[in-house]
Amino acid sequence: MVTVFLFLICLYFLVSVGSGDWTTLTSALFAIFAVLAAAEAMSCRVELRSDHLLLVSNFKRRQFPRNALARVTGEKGVPVALQTITGEWVRFPSVLPGGPAVAGIVRSWMEGK
């Protein structure tokens, strides 16, 4: 959020000075991208519901029934990944904390504990 704020201040300064060159356009594009990136980072989530897992990333929602998941893996510094019973691998969003702890929570949920 600090980055978004800084880009918006820079854009305001360039527009108020009356500069209409490439720096103003570049700052405007960076400000737009920063706002979109912040919105995406705040909307990413994984929800463990009683009968399915909900994965929200890139403004898309994916839902996986508990019985459609085969296994979960997660190592330190690597996003958690799920394998479905069809063999497809689904990675958690990289902005979410990952690792063995999150993989253990999902594994426990898959086993019904």
The level-1 CATH class of the largest domain: Mainly Beta
Q: Helical region count?
A: 3
**Parts with pLDDT < 50 across at least 5 consecutive residues:** none
Main β-sheet description: 3 strands, antiparallel
Arithmetic mean of pLDDT: 82
Structural class: alpha+beta
CATH topology of the largest domain: PH-domain like
Q: Which architecture name of the largest domain does CATH use?
A: Roll
Number of strands: 6
- State Rg: 20 Å
Strand fraction: 15-25%
Helical proportion, percent range: 40-55%
Please tell me what the overall shape is. Answer: elongated
Biggest sheet, strands in spatial order?
A: 1-2-3
| Total tally of structural domains | 2
End-to-end Cα distance, whole Å, is 37 Å
Helices and strands, in order, run as: HHEEEEEEH
What does this molecule look like?
The model has no long low-confidence stretch (mean pLDDT 82). Strands 1-2-3 form a three-stranded antiparallel sheet. It has a three-stranded antiparallel sheet with strand order 4-5-6, covered by helices on one side. The chain is built from three helices and six strands; from the N terminus they run ααββββββα. The longest helix is centred in the N-terminal third of the chain and has 22 residues, at 22-43. 44% of the residues lie in helices and 25% in strands. The two termini are 37 Å apart. Helix 1 (2-17) runs antiparallel to helix 2 (22-43).
